[in-house]
Amino acid sequence: MSDRPICPSCGSGNPPTLSVCWKCGVTLPSTPTRQHPTPSITSLTTPATLSVSSSTFQSQPTSTPVQYPPIYTDDTSDTLHEMAETRRKLDTSHTRKGLVLLTISYTSIAIIIAASTIDLLWGLLASIADLIGIVGGLLVVVGRDSFGRAHSRNTSLCVVFFMISIVTITAGKILFGATLVLSQIPNGTITYGNTTSSTVNPYIILYITSMIATALTGLAVVFLTYALHRKTGRIILSVSYITLLALTVMMTALILQGFAIRSSIIVDLAYLQEMRYQYEILQLVTIIPTLAFAFSFYLALRRINNGEIPESTAQKTLPAY
């Protein structure tokens, strides 16, 4: 604006090339004339602040923001690893304690079976050993999650078989008691002699249901630790169960045969004594599968102590996101 003379009369600005005001004609004060480059059309129509060509912006297009998936930091990964490792250690601890109790329980049962042939009072301790085994089995069930799907499925089947065995033995005892009471109704006492059905039938119900319950319990024991074993341990479990089942059937048959003989008119005491001797032999033989079960529990416990199972979380990779 300082290069354009101002008219002293009307105050209008004039181009520097004029000597008189273009509006009122008054002579303009003389000012040094400066040479200015001829302004281009673009400079006259475009403000100075926007003199940069638009092609400059077109040659550098603005990039579109890229949506990235959430990135899990090392802290998140460490937290997940710590949670998984804590759970694995807890499950391993429960399973280890359960296997220890099961090993002690079945070893004690084998000792009690051997001792009960000498003194029947030792047989009372079997219930304590059974209780220890039940607690051990529950601990194995509680710690099943970290040992794989197969073990979790097998422990669930174990619980099902064990519950069915309890229902079976309970129903058998109820039927035994009801049948025994009904057999006493005619004259108030249990009849012997020719009326054998009132005496034998209740015991048939009791011992058959006990045999079925024993078979189901043994099956539950097999499923409890089957997935924790290698091939050798699984063979030991299977053979032990088959042997124990066969011995249970033979012992039950001897008991029922003995009741049938005692309820007959003529009782052969020598034959009964021989049957009792056979029963005691079979009872002693059950020590073998019982100790085999205890040894299988020890094998599973040794695999855990050696770190073979369960798989460490350090060997597992987090899922890809």
* Sheet having the most strands: none
Percentage of residues assigned to helices: 55-70%
Number of helices: 9
> Strand fraction band?
under 5%
- Unreliable stretches (pLDDT < 50, length at least 5) are 32-36, 40-59, 188-199, 317-321
The residue-averaged pLDDT reads 80
Distance between the termini: 66 Å
Order of helices and strands, N to C? HHHHHHHHH
Task: Output the structural class.
Answer: mainly alpha
Query: What is the β-strand count?
Result: 0
What is the CA-based Rg, rounded?
49 Å
- Inertia-based shape: rod-shaped
Key terms for this structure?
321 residues; 9 helices; disordered C terminus
What does this structure look like?
With 321 residues, the chain is mostly helical. It has a domain at 87-306. The chain is built from nine helices and no strands. It has helices spanning 41-45, 54-58, 74-116, 126-142, 149-183, 197-225, 231-262, 269-285, 287-305. It is rod-shaped, with a radius of gyration of 49 Å.
Secondary structure blueprint with pairings:
Layout: H1 41-45, H2 54-58, H3 74-116, H4 126-142, H5 149-183, H6 197-225, H7 231-262, H8 269-285, H9 287-305
Helix pairs in contact: 3-4, 3-9, 5-6, 6-7, 7-8, 7-9
Summarize the structure.
With 321 residues, the protein is mostly helical. Helix content is 63%, strand content 0%.
